[in-house]
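Our platform keeps sequence and structure together, in a single record for each protein. Such a record has a labelled line for the sequence and another for the backbone structure tokens. Nothing more is needed to write down the fold, since each code stands for a local backbone conformation. For reference, a complete record is included directly beneath this paragraph:
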Amino acid sequence: MDKTVIAQTVADEIRAAKDCMAAAMNNLTGAYGKAYGRCMSDLHYACYHLASALLASKGIAANSHEAVQKLLALHFVKPAALPRDTTAKLNDLMDKRHVADYRPYIQIGAEDLAGFRPWIVGFVRGVLKLLGKSAPAAEAIALRRAVDDFEKIRLE
């Protein structure tokens, strides 16, 4: 990937992550009540897009969720730029997304979100820190604000 493509891909992925985070917040605070399953799905995609942005910042393209996890482990977890539990947590989050999207008879509740919240907040902040100036400022600020709000929201 050339530098222009890298910069555009990072910007697109950060924007997508911000949009997913906003949707997650709407599913927790919207006028129609709390939709925990939809929120969990949106949070998964926010993290997926952030992971994709981080890979793209190094010129690495992944074509599946599994490839994103494997490449993230190889290029960021193994060298200790991200915590050791990153890929396991992303996998757990993807499993919850599958439940939310395809198994409506299995309830996802506030306790499920509460269990993931500290990791998601740390992951978003950690990736934004690693991206530094390669993340578009306005989108990064909006994403930081959304994750700060997510950290503070009452889940019950």
About this structure: The radius of gyration is 15 Å. The helical segments are 3-29, 36-57, 65-77, 86-102, 110-131, 137-152. The chain is about 75% helix and 0% strand.
